[in-house]
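Project standup — Tuesday

K.O.: blocked on the structure for the chain from last sprint. Re-posting the sequence here as requested.
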Amino acid sequence: MSHGDPVEPTQGPAWGVGSISSSGSTIVTANYSRFRRRLVFAGLGVLVLVVAAVATLLVVRDDDPTTPAAAAAASASLPDLGDPTPVLAGLDAAAPAPDPAALAATLTPLLGSPALGAGVSAEVVDVATGNSLFDLDGGTPSTPASTAKLLTSVAVLTTLDPADTLQTKVVAGATPGEVVLVGGGDPTLSRTSPSQSYPGAPTMADLAGQVLAALPAGTPVSRVVVDNSLYSGPLTATGWATGDAPSSYAAPVTAAMVDGARVKPGSDARSGQPGLDAGAALADALGVPGATIVLGPAPAGAKTLGTVHSAPIARLVEQALSQSDNMLAEALARQVAVARHQPASFEGSAQSVIAALKDAGVDVGGVQLSDGSGLSREDRVPVRLLTSLLTDAADGTLPETSSILSGLPVAGYDGTLADRGDDDPATEPGAVRAKTGTLQAVNGLAGTVVTEDGRLLTFAVLADAAAGSVDSAEAALDRVATALAQCGC
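H.V.: unblocked you, prediction finished:
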């Protein structure tokens, strides 16, 4: 089995819970623990009391203050809600950094878990000082799995303006009745309104409406051409397994697709022909489901009939990280290649990501990439690079990369960590936020953690020779993250 980090249950220990990104753009699959459910039900009880009191006030007639209802309303008092409970773990400017020796004594036996196997590398960094507090083969390149999406995310955010969007357009075809869907590399274009997978995504209905308005009245559309020429090279990467595309987590990578190449909106299954599916979706939206759908180039200088734009790059990064979306990550990597005037292929985008990181001042020694998602087993990344990227995003060295932090899954709450943690009400909420990584015998975790003392750390652990099941390896990684979160060392 090889996969692109779908959400998977685990038997790991408890972590803190947090909230979604302030942008509200990541897809949230909240996982309320027993403790949190009690808080929710208590809150609902208070809300009912408030609503009842307000309703009582509303039914009172202004011109009859002597009614029993008016008297009851006059004597009513709203419950004292008290101070709000913090949603996220806070930072203490005076919080002490963990002692490296004590941290090593805590982490070393956990990283020696048989479930993680012999190929474990790890590093912990204090964000405030930039000092490495723990280093286990941090400079040794390892298989990153989906933690490689951190590299793609930093590359695209430092290459493009985070406010930029991806464009999809339809132009007139070479013959009457023909329209051409020109793929601009936006996999979020949606068959439904709103999208069931990507908040803020453009819709095919909007695009089709523009096309119909731009065509001469009464012009029938009988043929839809799909232009995928923005991308070049193979449709799958070297190092991908034969069952990876199509699967529930990946598909052939094309410049035009809908719903992240899903077979249908909201489903897990991905298509083996995403370009043709996009053409069929346009035909359906135009009201001509029987139209001929083919692949081909747009005519030079063709008139534009309609244009839609994706959510901003920063929001796409959040979504790619939170859900570990391989198709979105590959699309972002190709945008780096396009911006650097390189072929928008797997090879061109991988090399462009590395070059962009180098240009941003990142040490890319030991990095080898064959794709932008981490699905390739040929990818190699040292954990030291992962902690470096996270630290640079957290301390403001790379201010344009802040959406990496807001896009990290929150333990026990959303994304690929929704089902991993938090049955312990004593744990600080939102203490652990991390990008997961999972392939066959490869498990990784890289993110931020707020210690019990209130110190912000970045950490990364890669185990690329894991000997146990996915659940046992993830549980071992969770114990490491929990130890960091509970660190008063």
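K.O.: great, moving the ticket to review. The first helix runs from residue 34 to 59. The two ends are 39 Å apart (CA to CA).
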